Amino acid sequence: MSRLPFFVYGTLRPGEPNHDLFLLGRTVSEVPGRLVGAVLYEGPGYPYVVEEPGGVVCGELITPSPQRYGQLLLVLDRLEDYAPGDPANLYERVAREVRVGDGTRVETAWVYVAAPAVAARLRARGKLIEGGDWRGRGC
């Protein structure tokens, strides 16, 4: 499995409650980024990314320290209720391109996106987060 960085867009972003619990002291870099081809929907205290052409989601590209990568991957999968191949997943962990900085640099990162059944429910009756930024500031 690739040791990709993570693109975070909700409670794991710097300044949000889960950042300090799970990421503080375990990363080597955290830089602003944008996920193109996705939108955000409100969840119960946290957002969901749903892949959608034309959308943009704001967040950070988080690069874990190498010695903590395996442990952090397990912890984040557990936080996101993700288990490979489990049909009950709320999220799926997928590799996607993320634009970093001024958008000229592109990195491949792990992103937790809404699982297909969750995405279908959100598209049908979810509340879209305008501007793609859970904090409401825009990219």
UniProtKB/TrEMBL annotation:
Residue ranges of domain Gamma-glutamylcyclotransferase AIG2-like in the record: 6-135
CDD domains per the UniProt record, alphabetical: GGCT_like
Protein name: Gamma-glutamylcyclotransferase
A Pfam family that the UniProt record links to this protein: GGACT
